[in-house]
Every structure is written in C-alpha cells, then in structure tokens.
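Support reply, case 0932

Customer input (verbatim):
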Amino acid sequence: MAGSTLRIGKIVTTANQLSMRIDERFPNSGLLAVSKELVAMGDVARIQAPLIGRPNYSVRTAVGALIVVILAIVASLIAAARNNIDQITKTNLVDLMTAIESGTNEIFLIGLVILFLVTLETRIKRSRTLRNIHELRSLAHVIDMHQLNKDPGYFRGPVVATKSSPQRVLSLPELVRYLEYCSELLSITSKIAALYAQEMNDRVVLSAVGDIETLVTGLTQKIWQKLDIAGEIQSSIRH
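Our regenerated output:
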C-alpha cells in the first residue's frame, strides 16, 4: 500500500531542500558538497530502485533459451546413454556402474549450471544494489567526519588553542544548526538505503541495509549528545 511504503520522489525532494538550506546558511562549505552528493545518490535511487523490483525480461529470455538448449542436450545424452547401458549390461557389470556414476556426475553439474542461470537475474540486481548501498555507507562516514570536530564544549569557557587545534569559526547557534543538518543528512542516507530493500526482498540486501541503519543510528546518537550539551550551554547563557 502507498501509505506503508517509502516514496522515492518525496525522499529526493527532501534531500534537495536540505541541500538548499545548507547552501543558504553554509555556502561553499564541505557539508554543502556532501549534501549535493547525497542528492545525486537519491536521483540514482529514483531511477534504479524501481527497476530492481521489475522483471528483467532480457535476462529471463536469454536464461530461458539457454535452459531449453541445455535440456535438449541432456535429452540427447540420456538417449545415447540408454543405448550404451543396454550394450554394457550385456558385457560387464563394472562398466555399467562406471557409466551410471559418470552420468550422475554430469546430471549434478548440469543442475548446478541451471541453478546458476535461474539465479542470474537476482545476482545481477543484488550486485548493483550492494554497490549503491556501499556508496551510501561511505557517505555516512563522510558526514560523521564533518561533525567530528564540532565540539559545543568549546563554548563552556575559554580554551587555549594549540597549533593543531581546528579553527572555531561557528557561533554556538550556527554550530547547533550545523549538527542538526548532519543528523538530517544521515537520516536521509538511511531512507535512501531503505528504498533498495523495499524494492528487493533479498536476504543479503536486507542485511546490508540493516547495517547502514545501525551505523546511522549510532552516528546520530553522537550528534544528539553534542546537541544536548549545546542546549545546556545555551540555557546557562540565558540565565
């Protein structure tokens, strides 16, 4: 049902609006570049996610034709094997057992080939999906790097900076907004990943998406711990 599924267009629109908000408040920032990359990944998901849920008829047609050819070859081999078995039975029991074992091995190998062909479409879709999910996972870590040195504790009192200390160019309200943007970017990253799981009910894909959701949850918790500290500092300043 539409009400219980993620809507690709809505998520991409939200990502685009967030990127514009970041541009208006932090133009030319690294976070803006990350938000644009996330929008691009959303556009990829807009195109590719629906395709994952649809049958790939070109692959299915090719696979079906190959299976028909294989089965025809198997049928001819079985017919030839019957003639051989009839002849072998009249001569030597050992040769008969050898022929049966050889035929069994061939049938097993043919079965593996057919299984490979039958699962080919799923494996192609899985490979493409996992590649996109891996890019989303990498982007989540990049977002985390952007918030890493944004420490609201700096505003609790004078801090002696060292030569290697990061530059503190944001005011406390700006820092709060920056961290909130990071949290929103992570949330959208998780939602885009979930789109792929929604379209492809595959155990490997579901596991990969679950890993991203766990990662995003952990990173978001770190951000909100900083926001809690920032809120306490703002409250103490007002009083």
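We compared this against your earlier run and they match. Two observations from our side: Residues 2-54+124-156+169-238 form one domain. The chain has two domains: 2-54+124-156+169-238, 57-120. Please reopen the case if you see a mismatch on your end.
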